[in-house]
Write a structure and sequence with these properties.
about 220 residues; twelve-stranded antiparallel β-sheet; globular; mainly beta; about 50% strand; about 10% helix
């Protein structure tokens, strides 16, 4: 019975990784498909954690020192992964905390914590926080790099956009911009900062005439 429970949650965690990773993989600007991608079970993920705690009464599942990777180059690392929806992985909310990183073949996300919500086996929301949280996205074909940092990053998955707020900074390689809040469209590589989101502050941008940002300059 114990082995059956562990095997069930091993499979569930693998599905979690696939849901997350194949949704986030659509951040590539050359892909116009929504980030809430359907399941793809062909990537053979493997995961491990320091231990496993399951509370059958509250459906709380806790996986400390969580690591997941796939053959195609995706990975999740977090000090802890947990959900209160252990009985319903199709529609569940997961929290990753303590030095969270998402690694993708064309970029990465680093944060203090991340919340992922799944609806019908697809990613619905991805909310990232940090001091600051950071993302990097590389377009190998166009030879461009976009980087951003902010206290809060919200991925609007259906539109392939990320909203950065709380000391937002974005570099597109040609421009570096700071604002109270900005939205970066990863598909179209378009940056916008609505006046209604600025809390009375002004948007400040610097035109980059050297390759310092592309070489890895930080905000």
């Amino acid at each position: 019975m114990a082995n059956s429970v562990l095997n069930n949650h091993h499979r569930a965690a693998c599905w979690l990784g696939l849901l997350l990773l194949f949704g986030v993989s659509a951040l590539a600007p050359t892909q116009a498909a929504p980030l809430a991608a359907p399941l793809n079970l062909g990537d053979n993920p493997t995961w491990d954690s320091k231990s496993l705690t399951l509370d059958g009464k509250t459906n709380l599942l806790v996986l400390p020192d969580f690591h997941l990777k796939t053959q195609s180059g995706y990975a999740i690392d977090a000090g802890e992964a947990r959900t209160n929806d252990a009985n319903n992985f199709r529609n569940s909310r997961w929290t990753f905390s303590n030095k969270v990183t998402f690694t993708l073949p064309n970029g990465n996300i680093a944060a203090d914590s991340a919340v992922v919500i799944f609806v019908n086996n697809q990613i619905s929301e991805l909310h990232v926080t940090g001091a600051p949280a950071k993302f990097e996205h590389r377009d190998e074909a166009a030879k461009t790099v976009a980087r951003g940092s902010a206290g809060v990053m919200d991925y609007v998955l259906a539109q392939n956009t990320v909203k950065l707020s709380q000391q937002a900074w974005v570099s597109t390689g040609q421009n570096e911009c700071r604002a109270a809040a900005m939205v970066y469209n990863l598909t179209e590589q378009r940056l916008s900062a609505a006046s209604t989101d600025q809390n009375g502050q002004r948007v400040s941008c610097t035109v980059v005439t050297t390759n310092k940002t592309e070489a890895g300059r930080t905000p």
